[in-house]
Amino acid sequence: MKENAKPREERYIYAMGTPTPTVSLPHVAAVNAASASFAALTAKLDYLSQADCEQIRLAYRFADQAHLGQLRNNGEPYITHPIAVAAQCAEWKLDAQALMAALLHDSLEDCGVTKIELIERFGSPVAELVDGLTKLDKLHFNTREESQAESFRKMLLAMARDVRVILIKLADRSHNMRTLSDVPREKWNRIASETLEIYAPIAHRLGLNQTYRELQDLSFRHLRPWRYTTLSKAVAKARGRRRDLMQKVHKEVEAVFASADMPVRIAGREKPLFSIYKKMAVKRLSFAQVTDIYGFRIIVPQVIDCYTALGILHQLYKPLPGKFKDHIAIAKLNGYQSLHTTLVGPSSVSVEFQIRTEAMHIVAESGVAAHWLYKVNNPQEASSERLGTKWLQSLLDIQNETRDAAEFWDHVKVDLFPDAVYVFTPRSQIMALPRGATVVDFAYAIHSNVGDHTTQARINGETVALRTELKNGDVVEVETSPTSTPNPAWLSFVRTGRARSKIRHHLKSQAHTESEQLGSKLLTQALRAEGIEGFSDEDAAYESTWAKLLRFTGNRTRHELLTDIGLGKRIANIVAKRLVHLLGEIGKRPDALLLTRERFTARDNATQGSITLDGSENASVQFAHCCRPIPGDAISGYLGRGEGLVVHTKTCPLATKLRHKDNERFIDVDWSDEPVRAFETGLLVVAKNGKGVLAKIAEALASAETDIVHIQMGHDVEHEIIELQFIVAVQDASQLEVALRSVKRVPAVVRAVRAAAPVQD
């Protein structure tokens, strides 16, 4: 929002603290305006020491020099903007470093100032803050989420490392929004939308409610100018009509507290325009139907006085049932605390009251920024977790496990709009989670180890499924087991970004470990086929050979190469042939006896040296859904590109097509003599339609000790004949035969055969 700057040499040069112009001075009025603005800033710095104030003055002089010749769109000197940003930060009682960074936040690059120069003049902490803000200023937000993801990640991580970065950025955005009318109108929609969708939710998540409301209203004003104007006029008229009523309520409340000899501060509250507009839109109300436009805040000295004041108000006016909320006992996720009650005042008009202490009021308006105010006034009362910074730390935790920007944003965005639910641990500790959170979310909120090893849970003493959604007041108890691991199915119902990132991180680690083990087994098998046995990848003599092999494959480490082989990204036979060639260069030759034996046995017995499957392979091995192989079937393994080992039956049509196309990707696999789990396969049952038929078929399957995983019925349920498709879990082909015979004995069944399983919704 500034015009082009003059060249670097056309600026003030400060010597001994006195400005000496090298070119003609700017307009006197403009200089006076800037000076007056800085004078207004210094009036707010009474909470800082004289030394801090002097440092801020030096930063102002440096910024003034750097921005000399630059103008904002309204013609004012550009320095008025950094001063306004610093003034907002001073309202939040931020420290001197933050105020200096606010004054200098636009000085890098555009003004020819370097980070090194800032470090030399103002120290590393200030330079790092300015550098973080400069990087944020270079972010451009588009409407497409995939383009936004990296920008969001950088901004949120900068915020997590030092919350002052985002506080200064929010102050910067607030002032830019206040002066948005000076910007060309074609830019209004982009800037206002970005503010409403990104910065306002972050302000709310951090408890900066005053900034949150202002950003919403300013965005609304520039996104919907006509509606904003119409609604503001309606509110002004209503304000005039209800002035007498509100004054009457104010006097009556003031009198009742005076008679109770309780010192209170009473302040009127008006619902923000955007909140009124949103309520009208969501609930389809007319303006006349919105009853909570005006209200009062009662500020009392102590926490106990909040409840005393509540009782006094309830004696004065009748409370509306269901309109009382205690956010003191159970604070909101962003640290907000107050008692809320709606009372029926004079003329049967509903009036909302918010009751809080002075400290609660500061947190309610300034949120996480109140941390600095507490440090100034009472260091012992600064509770970072209560002020919402626990969420900031969780951003760093998610980042450590999620390097993909889009995935990071996917985890974080669910936490930006929290509608909280409050539950209790067995020791009566209160935990706040987003609405819709499940038992698994609760477990990960306690600790990642608890979440990873969760087996079952009880809510209010009753055993429940892990996907059960939590409700306000639930007492949740989680049971764990050292052998339990996260289930991929959990991703379909967890609500919090922390739980989602922890589960994905564990599954990825597990998949890579298993894929590496499979890759090692495949490479060993391929080397045996080439006549090499007993080759150690840890032997120092082969370091150069491995280095050459990794250059050939393009991998960084041996672990990565073996993982790629296990995932099917590399062909074990090709890697083995290259490795044999490299070993030949250092004198290691294939064993002729082993080579002959491998080739003979490969022709004589196809399963010799094959990979044995027992069902414990988890993520590294997939059993194809097109044919659903089970123990007893003749099978083959296909190394899909990036999919790991996919197992098909040898008669599978898809496997036959793949063999013609990519025969080198097929390897020999065989079943273990003792599989460790059941395997899924499909059944097709054709039956006469009638009452209780499905129940009888299910009973027949249960009698064969066969578990039903999924059922899909035909659409023609009114016809005499109906098709039922099942996915069932069996130990092997013999158990499947027993299950089929049991189903065929049901009188209504016409036909029962093994078939391709249905597609699950």
Report on the structure:
The longest helix is centred in the N-terminal third of the chain and has 35 residues, at 225-259. Among the domains are: 13-225, Hypothetical protein af1432; 506-669, no CATH class; 679-754, Alpha-Beta Plaits (2-Layer Sandwich), CATH 3.30.70.260. The chain has a 5-stranded mixed sheet. Strands 14-16-15-17 form a 4-stranded mixed sheet. A 4-stranded antiparallel sheet has the order 20-21-19-22, covered by helices on one side. The protein has 761 residues and is α+β, with helices and mostly antiparallel strands.
How are the elements arranged and paired?
Elements: E1 13-15, E2 18-20, H1 28-42, H2 50-66, H3 80-91, H4 96-104, H5 115-122, H6 124-137, H7 145-161, H8 163-178, H9 188-205, H10 209-223, H11 225-259, E3 265-270, H12 273-283, E4 294-300, H13 303-316, E5 318-326, E6 339-344, E7 350-357, H14 358-366, H15 370-377, H16 389-401, H17 405-416, E8 420-424, E9 430-434, H18 439-446, H19 448-452, E10 454-459, E11 462-464, E12 476-480, H20 497-529, H21 543-553, H22 558-567, H23 572-585, H24 592-604, E13 611-613, E14 621-623, E15 635-640, E16 644-649, H25 653-661, E17 666-667, E18 669-671, E19 679-688, H26 693-703, E20 707-713, E21 721-730, H27 733-744, E22 749-754
Parallel strand pairs: 4-7, 13-18, 14-16
Antiparallel strand pairs: 1-2, 3-4, 5-6, 6-7, 8-9, 10-11, 10-12, 15-16, 15-17, 19-21, 19-22, 20-21
Helix pairs in contact: 1-3, 2-4, 3-4, 3-8, 4-6, 4-8, 5-6, 6-8, 7-8, 7-16, 7-17, 8-10, 9-10, 10-11, 11-13, 16-20, 17-20, 18-20, 20-22, 20-23, 21-23, 26-27
